[in-house]
Design a protein that fits this description.
heterodimer, A: mainly alpha, B: about 425 residues, globular
Chain lengths: ~180, ~425
């Protein structure tokens, strides 16, 4: 039983969520994955090295915290994009599942259309935000903040596209997806 | 104020229709901006500001630690140790279930990961040993609620990020209640085992405890890093998260040799996907809180609670807010980023200890996971056990009553939560 428990943990974390998907779909998701993993890996390394530096060598990396915080929008938006692509976004299914079958498809389509529209709205104002404030420099590294906040506009636009593609595919399959 | 109420109703309506939580939040905030004449540019501005906290970094780091440990063969060792410690008792497998959840709580911090992992094995095993399926599911569902109290706890990270309360203090505040709840569950299992004549297997073996303890001792280095680092003031919670990740990689890849580099990539991807959406929800919760504050919703809520409780007692007000959190928790998951920004000014106005209330909020999250319609713990266990949720709900009643009583005790005795953090100041 103990061995089965170990296998369950491994299967839960290591299964390939894109198994059976087309090569293009896998490639798109892989690009987002690599971006997300690089961002998270950088965050882990910076926080770890900064703490080690402070305690072991009594010298902290002054810009580490600034860079780590600046990377959060990229981490958030790549994660959201992957969740949208893999239909793993947080939603309450309880009531939807109890609707009559004939109502379920139109409500799902409405949810997807609204989702695409909401992300277009977020992308549009994130772009404005980027235009207005993207040239501001960070305190220590003096990098344009737009390098980091652009994640909001790019991630929102990509998520809107992912929802739009999902609507297109659902309509082509007659709501069977 | 009317615009804010319409926005809240829209938010709830969209959630009920199955619209993704992020989208519901964006739509509700956008509508409130439009109705109150605020500049929509404030949405990304508040979201970026909300994300820009060092505390929030703890969330992906501890989620990553949990996924590495879960994939890295830790559950096998923890289960063997738990079985050696309590498996010989009457109702041993149910006791093992509770104790494994306590161990998992100190390392993984997510009740759903605990359920999906250990529940998928322990529920069928309990059924095989003759436990009724709904009882096996109920024990797993309830005991998974211990994890969010024990550090590292994802709900506490969210609460800290939203309220600005010290995450280290919150982690320590949850430790004693988490361990106590686990012990109370074990007592309840012992009583149920006696009443229903559950089976006893084998006898206490000190040799087994020694062997399995030695095999799992390194895994317990993780909670030692987290709690020890915070108690001794060595780490900030985010740094404890980074050290936990490095330790978990070292253990899983080089000591247990259960993970390869390719596996590590997949584990990182899972952590990115799990936390990305939560980070965005937290940032949207700032935008929601800010727009509702502008509409004076918290003041109206405070006035409403004052009118309802007709007393000046902080405890009665806290009880009213806790009941509100429980009701909201029945519908919302994650609960904290959506509800807390709305009630935070009310908590401050009533001079309620934010650390104490943080632990109560986690209890509300746990209760929400066990109460329909959302009841994620019941949904997962009913799928694993192949039993109707309502049967599990009935079988879970003894545990549920204990959780409610425990929450009331926690409310009446704030020292249970606040004593440990106060010792560390």
């Amino acid at each position: 039983m103990a061995a089965a428990l170990g296998r369950a943990g491994r299967d839960q974390e290591l299964h390939d969520p894109d198994a059976g998907k087309s090569a293009v779909d896998r490639l798109v998701n892989r690009v987002a994955e690599v971006l997300g993993v690089t961002t998270l890996g950088t965050i882990v390394l910076l926080v770890f090295l900064n703490a080690v530096g402070r305690y072991v060598f009594a010298s902290a990396i002054v810009w580490a915290e600034e860079l780590v915080i600046a990377l959060i929008p990229w981490l958030a938006m790549t994660g959201v994009f992957l969740s949208v692509r893999r239909r793993a976004v947080i939603r309450i299914d309880y009531f939807l599942e109890r609707l009559p079958r004939r109502l379920r498809v139109p409500v799902s389509v409405f949810a997807s259309v609204l989702s695409a529209a909401a992300f277009v709205y977020l992308a549009r104002y994130s772009l404005d935000y980027l235009t207005f404030f993207g040239g501001d420099l960070t305190t220590y590294l003096e990098l344009p903040t737009g390098w980091f906040t652009s994640a909001m506009a790019i991630g929102a636009a990509a998520s809107a596209l992912a929802f739009a593609l999902d609507i297109f595919r659902t309509s082509r399959s007659g709501g069977a997806r | 104020m009317t615009g804010a109420l319409i926005s809240i109703l829209l938010l709830l309506g969209l959630l009920v229709l199955g619209v993704p939580m992020i989208v519901s939040l964006i739509t509700a905030v956008a509508l409130n901006f439009a109705l109150s004449g605020q500049w929509p540019l404030q949405l990304p501005q508040t979201m970026v500001a909300g994300m820009s906290t060092f505390t929030l970094i703890a969330l992906p780091l501890f989620v990553l630690t949990g996924t590495i440990m879960n994939a890295g063969g830790i559950s096998t060792r923890l289960f063997e140790f738990a079985r050696a410690l309590v498996g010989w008792m009457r109702g041993g497998l149910a006791q093992v279930n509770v104790l494994t959840s306590m161990f998992f709580g100190g390392m993984i911090g997510s009740s759903t990961a605990d359920l999906a992992g250990s529940g998928s094995i322990l529920i069928p095993a309990m059924k095989k040993e003759g436990y009724p399926a709904e009882v096996a599911a109920a024990v797993s569902a309830s005991s998974s609620g211990i994890g969010p109290l024990i550090p590292p706890s994802s709900p506490m990270i969210l609460y800290s990020a939203v309220t600005g309360t010290s995450l280290g203090a919150l982690f320590l505040a949850g430790l004693i209640p988490g361990l106590l709840l686990g012990l109370v569950f074990m007592l309840l299992v012992a009583v149920l085992a006696f009443l229903f004549r559950w089976k006893r297997h084998g006898a206490l073996s000190l040799a087994d405890i020694w062997t399995s303890g030695r095999r799992s001792i390194l895994a317990f280095g993780l909670p030692a890093i987290i709690v020890g680092g915070l108690v001794l003031g060595v780490f900030t919670p985010s740094e404890a998260g980074a050290f936990s990740v490095v330790y978990a990689i070292f253990l899983s890849c080089f000591v247990y040799r259960a993970l390869r580099l390719r596996d590590l990539y997949r584990v990182f991807v899972n952590a990115v996907q799990l936390t990305g959406e939560l980070l965005l929800i937290v940032s949207l919760s700032f935008a929601l809180g800010s727009s509702l504050s502008s509409a004076h919703v918290p003041q109206a809520l405070a006035g409403l609670i004052d009118a309802l409780v007709v007393t000046d007692s902080t405890y009665v007000r806290m009880l009213a807010l806790f009941c509100l959190a429980i009701v909201a928790g029945m519908f919302l998951d994650p609960l904290i980023p959506v509800l807390v920004p709305v009630i935070l000014p009310t908590l401050v106005a009533f001079q309620i200890d934010l650390i104490h209330f943080g632990v109560l909020m986690v209890m509300a999250v746990v209760i929400g996971q066990l109460t329909p319609p959302l009841a994620i713990a019941l949904i997962i266990t009913s799928r694993i056990a192949g039993v109707d949720q309502m049967r599990i709900l009935r079988a879970n009643m003894p545990f549920f009553v204990i959780i409610i009583l425990f929450s009331l005790c926690l409310m009446a005795m704030p020292g249970l939560a606040t004593w440990l953090p106060s010792m560390m100041r």
